Amino acid sequence: MLWQGNRGLYALLQAARHTGPITRVPRLGWVVTDPVLARRVLNDHDRFGMNGEGGVGHLWTQLFGDEMAQFFGGARHAEVRTRARGLFTEDAARDLVERSQGRHHAELARRLAAGGTVDVADAARVLAGRMVADLLGLPADRPDRAYRDLFGAGERLAGLALGTTASTGLDPATIARARAIVDEITTGVPRGYADGGPGTLLGRCRAMGLGLPLARGLATLLVIAGTETGASGTVRTVALLHDTGQQRALLADPSLREGAVREGLRVAAPAPVIGRHVARDAVVDGRRLRAGDRVLLLTYLATNGAGPFDVHRAYVPETRQLWFGGGRHLCLGAAVARTQVARMLSTLHSGGRPYRIVSRRAARRVLVPSYAELRVTLARG
What we know:
The protein is an alpha+beta fold. The chain has a single domain, classed as CATH 1.10.630.10. It contains 17 helices and 10 strands. The protein has helices spanning 2-5, 7-16, 35-43, 56-64, 66-73, 75-84, 90-113, 120-136, 144-159, 172-185, 189-195, 201-207, 212-243, 247-252, 257-268, 299-304, 334-348; strands at residues 22-25, 29-32, 48-49, 118-119, 274-278, 282-284, 287-289, 294-297, 355-362, 371-378. The strands form 3 sheets. A 5-stranded mixed β-sheet has the order 1-2-8-5-3, with helices on one face. Strands 4-10-9 form a 3-stranded antiparallel β-sheet. Strands 6-7 form a two-stranded antiparallel ribbon. Helix 7 (90-113) runs parallel beside helix 17 (334-348), helix 8 (120-136) packs antiparallel against helix 13 (212-243) and helix 9 crosses helix 13 (212-243).
């Protein structure tokens, strides 16, 4: 799947398997494969930042301007996270997923119980889009096609970053294409910003005095983070449970579901690479990193070093939520992502029988490896 989805990422991961925990690679910068060192970098906000060459903030600033750079690197970031945190608690995540996806999960369960097949990949894309729209405060009564389009636009925008492994600088033509996609993604944001209540992210942006341009940037960021990575983690966990034959253990003991979700996200690592910019000289594991260098944290290798997918695996502190980042930039929607995966597993197992995959097709040329199609039906007997 990695080879079909993102060949550059696949080649990088294959080469990095034979390096040490931190290695300097020509044209790429420093490559980190050790989970403890990766977390050390993510937690050192004085020396490693998101703005500047190598950080995602550098990409976003080119699209949305200096206000976005201030968000990624300043006190405003902490304020936004503090004010928005109530939307992303464990309880809020369960309410959000049930409100935006509940009746659609019921329909998926009905189709499976009737002997039909379900394309989990398509369902995950649509459901992730519905969840993001609800969270932002955008209209929720649109047909599935609208959410497929939203996901597709996010995928196209993320796809523009496929060539940024060596540099996060974008040429004018790429910036123009990206901004056109952003306009498509955020067409409903001005109204959501004006009318959204405190239970929506856009409403809270307005209440905090964040301008509409920054709100558009945050909405776009949420679309990418909330759909691409969420759908990938969900679908790949479904496939892992099937391929390893471990879903019967989950059916026999539903208390294993939390571990299954954690294992699925660990092995799939929906954010397989995290970039940082070296803001000040630093020493990591005896290596001197100079200001201006870039760092690639290969979270896919760092988390998979613990071993293959295993629903019985005990909690591994070295890799805890590393697939969601770390430090003050730890993914705010981590609870939402876990809840989405758990809700899909609950739906597929609602009939008390295991599912089987009848066909699958990997997504091609995508930033986040996933399945374009994963059709399942319930096993007989």
